[in-house]
Design a protein that fits this description.
Elements: H1 2-7, H2 11-24, H3 29-41, H4 45-57, H5 62-75, H6 79-92, H7 97-108
């Protein structure tokens, strides 16, 4: 349900669905990762960062998580933090295409 709500742009509903899922599966890194995506899209970056950091501790792909963190910082125009997170993403997976595209966008703001 959370993924479907997210795809429809219903971010509050997505967060609620992931809250329920996390209550049932508190060690699901995927649920934390996805709730972080919903929080970020909803404009609640600080909550997203908390969820993504929890997802990291639960074994979710660090490249994907650091890319999402970098992208959120980019949207907030915090380019230094975006660069730091982006480098962590690329250290974990130097071929992460989304991260490589974001690197180009960051270079354009220099």
């Amino acid at each position: 349900r959370g993924v479907c709500a997210f795809r429809r742009g219903q971010y509050a509903d997505a967060v609620h669905s992931f809250d329920v899922a996390i209550a049932l599966l508190p060690e699901s890194g995927e649920c934390y990762f996805n709730r972080g995506l919903a929080y970020s899209a909803w404009g609640k970056a600080e909550r997203a960062f908390l969820d993504w950091n929890r997802a990291l501790t639960l074994g979710i792909d660090p490249s994907a998580i650091h890319y999402q963190i970098a992208n959120a910082y980019f949207q907030l125009r915090n380019f230094d933090s975006a660069r730091r997170s982006l480098e962590r993403s690329l250290q974990a997976d130097h071929a992460n295409l989304d991260a490589l595209k974001l690197r180009k966008r960051l270079e354009a703001v220099d």
